[in-house]
Amino acid sequence: xxxxxxxxxxxxxxxxxxxxxxxxxxxxxxxxxxxxxxxxxxxxxxxxxxxxxxxxxxxxxxxxxxxxxxxxxxxxxxxxxxxxxxxxxxxxxxxxxxxxxxxxxxxxxxxxxxxxxxxxxxxxxxxxxxxxxxxxxxxxxxxxxxxxxxxxxxxxxxxxxxxxxxxxxxxxxxxxxxxxxxxxxxxxxxxxxxxxxxxxxxxxxxxxxxxxxxxxxxxxxxxxxxxxxxxxxxxxxxxxxxxxxxxxxxxxxxxxxxxxxxxxxxxxxxxxxxxxxxxxxxxxxxxxxxxxxxxxxxxxxxxxxxxxxxxxxxxxxxxxxxxxxxxxxxxxxxxxxxxxxxxxxxxxxxxxxxxxxxxxxxxxxxxxxxxxxxxxxxxxxxxxxxxxxxxxxxxxxxxxxxxxxxxxxxxxxxxxxxxxxxxxxxxxxxxxxxxxxxxxxxxxxxxxxxxxxxxxxxxxxxxxxxxxxxxxxxxxxxx
Length: 479
Prior knowledge:
By secondary structure, the chain is α+β, with helices and mostly antiparallel strands.
């Protein structure tokens, strides 16, 4: 899963027929570390810690055990795409496919993010892996490739149309000249602000870190302290979570900073990287109490309930606002992260990807290729992408420009219209995590998987460790 891909178990704000006044705002109260909104991420953390052990067990056992499929033409798909609307469309596509391909049966196993890796590795160890399964990030994909568990997806890429994919997307899935998974959807982490509050206080969209800090201060003092209510400039995630890690990496890029350079040398301790953590500590001073307990649900909920003027979150926020406070769709504005003052600073956006991977040892590989090629083309792809608007953004240029795909109510709101424009910007200048310095940097994978960036920020903000000291401790280990 993408770090910012959660949202289940969130406290849902009351539906609103208008933008609520500050006196009506329900300030989201962060709960303890074991709160419901964090459980998925904690389980996923444990899952990833067991990843290498499961890989080793799977490889050693798969050579000893040979399983059997239900019948010769069965294509088994293991997926974490459990949204009810997505499931409905997928099952409809399967029914249509089976009518014209009666010798092939498609079986879908829906699993939770926290269970995916363990179930997959158990199937591999039994010598009977699913033909197709979801992969949630670059590092996991490349590790599966290096372990010999998956095979390249180039035949499907060519069938769908290689030139139709966004170049940046295929590059993110390419290692040693091969595309190791077929992109299903892409997502973007962006910054959000309330245009009505900007207009109220004469603020302009920030073009720099300094302007952003100024806007946070104005909103916190004028709308919050000055108005006597509990209102804050921004929501902020500081705890040891995947979302925090993504937020930090995104802001680092906006200041021209990376963890490694293109040659693999450590650059985390460079001034522009250190300055990022000091900057985020200032940002946090304008956030609600309990930022170390904030993650996906709290970041959406704080903005949706009107408790903050900004949040740092993917486009999934649009669907959340549509469901729980649709009036905010008139004033919520997404933007790329503004540039800092470091060398190479630029507007930044973190991209993430979901893909289909193909088991190397599966029985019905050709049938699997045929079905995924069918699923990823024609109106079927459009129907799948429309099940979670904007959060599912197609990796195919033709689909992203298709009038049928764009004909969605959410896209016609002010927030939706602005999101389409920002998405196009993000696909031009945004970056995937392992590609921060150009080509995929595999040694960056373990750093991100251990959430080292989140841990540094937690040290700086919660333990008041100087940014240079906290960064230097991690950089020395990397060297």
